[in-house]
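Page header: ASSEMBLY MODEL / two components / 768 residues total.
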Amino acid sequence: MSSRGLLKATVTQQDTGRHLFELIGVTKRYGETEVIKPVNLGFPRGETTALIGTSGSGKSTLMRMLIGLVRPDSGRVLFDAIPLTPDNVLEIRHRIGYVVQEGGLFPHMTAGENVSLMARQLGWSGDRILERTRQLGNLTHMPTDLMSRYPSELSGGQRRRVSLMRAMMLEPDALLLDEPLGALDPMVRFELQGDLKEIFLALGKTVVLVTHDLAEAFYFAHRLVLVSGGEVVQQGTAEELLHRPANDFVERFMRAQRPPVVGLFVAGSS
Amino acid sequence: MTQGTLGIGILLLVAACEPRAASAQDEGFTVGSKAFTESVIIAEIAAGLVKGAGVDTRHRKALGGSRVVWNALLAGQIDAYPEYTGTLLTEIFPELSIQNETALRSTLAARGIGMTGPIGFNNTYAVGMQRDRAEALGVRTISDLSKHPDLRFGFSNEFMDREDGWPGLRAHYRLPQTRVTGMEHDLAYRGLSTGAIDATDVYATDAEIERYDLVVLEDDRRYFPDYRAVLLYRMDLTERCPRVVKTLGRLEGAIEGASMRRLNAEVKIGGMSEPRAAQEFLADRFGLDHEIRAPSTWGVLVQTTRDHLILVVISLGAAILVAIPLGIVAARRKRIGQLILGVTGILQTIPSLALLVFMIPILGIGAPPAIVALFLYSLLPIVRNTATGLREIPPPLRESAEALGLTPFTRLRIIELPMALPTILAGIKTSAVINVGTATLGALIGAGGYGQPILTGIRLDDIGLIMLGAVPAALLALAIQALFEVAERYLVPRGLRR
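Prediction written out in full:
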């Protein structure tokens, strides 16, 4: 089940550093509130990392920093060993796919227009866009004849698939997902989570997802990062967090959320 | 909407005034008038006389109140207009306490304005009585009233209250009457004819004096101030067109009080048009035979529609171009946004008439000041809706657009503005409807449009004429509403329609 070595490209990239994303001593405060205390964190290439924690813990803020939506007050954000700056952030964003909670499709554009938006901006040819859309449709199990519909005319599950297609259009090096299965009904959720996992495995990309659902994190991620109060409390595999909790809080967090069948879905165990 | 409705309601004007603020300095002679019948008639007579002398002449009718027309004269947008000496002293130069005609003339001359000798009548306050009653009592002058202490007086409320009204009159003439009541002016006229009262206050040239067959009692101890009619003109006419000044001089002493009363009655009671009344007077008094062209209803409609559309389209178009960028800034910068909304909001609260009058010293009369005023009024709804529409875009969508790596300008162009479009269109629609209504007020300062027939209709109490402006104005507002609904269908993408 390990993703290591799945893509040759990943192997060569690994020579420049084990981590695709790196947060080095980043902090953030909004007014009086310290949202992120100094955090150092790396995201290994080709692996799926889940940022977990209670709401308000700072996990979403950390993910937003990776793509430059939140600029740290101090510290640095590296992507592929390059520090994020206002000058290069647009280019770097083209190499990262980001799916916000509930998908974030633009309601005034059809599914197809949403998916091809950035490719059209970058001047891709119509044929290339069509071909890529077809590939992505296959990958995400999204029928391409629904591409002329507006988001309001699609089901919740279909919208998530379209969001995913949009995020992957430019063949990004990494995917960031904020609560990818949030607010879906159980059947759709079950179907989509299987498909998502398949996609992650097939691509072998670096994936970062934010979730408050531990089962989801176990199911998708090689590594978990537990965030609380703007700090990383513990990181490691699911087993490490379960069996060797760094402190009381980790133990309570894991136990409180752990559903009885969680063990069956543990991913990334070596 | 309030302003719109108000606009249609209050405004009026005359059908033949040109909407463009062409300067009177070019060729020919332009006479102006205030927005009441007597002023329009005198100006019409002056225009006819000058035209008879072979000078290209036009009349910008019923431009507004004294200040408006005076400023238009100073600015050179008109060359002359009829004025009253009392108005000059009390309204135009209230701070100067001018004592006599010589002082008045030099005050005017210092401003480049000349004044003809009195035209004849003196439109001051006066006391009127039923003719037969006055003759029966042998009352000819105000002094004569003191011989009849039992007479009942009914004065207008304003006259009762003013220091220079009844209190001053009573003291000046030592009038003994005690049965004195305040009442509506119209009721006072009726009271005279039924014998409920014996005397009331009138303006010396009121049309009603003819209608009710009243006599104006002579102010034998000269209590009431003079409101002698004169023509004011720009002194540069003397060089530019000396013939005009000479011709205007022919009006001196030409219109007596009785003539003026008859002319007023012909128009206000007899329903004659001012040009027609003026034409008859000119033929009668000066043997002048000039033809007048009465605009057809259709012609008035076409002309006022054109003028109105010019006002609305230009002011609204400019407002859209300015307000949308302002709204974008307001949505992005909280502080500046508050400032922008504050200023455009304050503009909205300035009464339309005041705003129009403020514009006159800067832009003169006619369409330009009206367009600027309408432009200022149209800003707020568009600015506010643009800012609201942009702010209401859900943060996850804004974040998605940013995360895709779109530049800020592209995000605005293809994501944010299209999503805010329904709200922005609603703002433009609001502005357009307000604009169509308020534009009727433009007629007050000579901008033309549907306000013209409305104002004239109000002045002449002619419902048909009021309808000729009010109905098209309402239809235009509806048409614009419909136009925006169609536009929404084409402009707003299916995914955003509710």
